[in-house]
What does this fold into?
Amino acid sequence: MKKIVSIIILLTFVPTLCLANGTIVTLNKGDPAPFSGSLLDPTAVANILAEKEKILKDKELEISYLKMKLQLEKEIAIGNLNIKISILEQRLNLMLRIKDDEISRLREIATKNSNDYNQWWAGGGFLIGAACTIALFFAAKEINK
It folds into this structure.
């Protein structure tokens, strides 16, 4: 953008610099010219000045257009980035919700099955009790002999 503006400003002021180097003397009809050169009537001078003003206005409009265009492009880019941020936030929230649901489901499965050892305790207690009874029976039988 800065490069474009610099080129436009340079092109705008180069013609004015070329016109500013001459000498301007106002003459009346019949006056001798103080130097040799081109003589312009007021209409020609007005045309030159009007052309200069037109070029300046055209360049100002072009600069204004380019500034507005860049501003709009910047706003569109910012809007697109904001939309991407919103989508990524929604995606993150969805993934976090799925993760939390999965953790809850796995925790429920783990707690449901982790304390369900009643069958093992009952079976183990029965086997130990039966083994102790048989051992006492054989011990008592051996003592009575």
User: Anything to note?
Assistant: Helices lie at 2-20, 42-114, 118-144. Residues 2-111 form one domain.
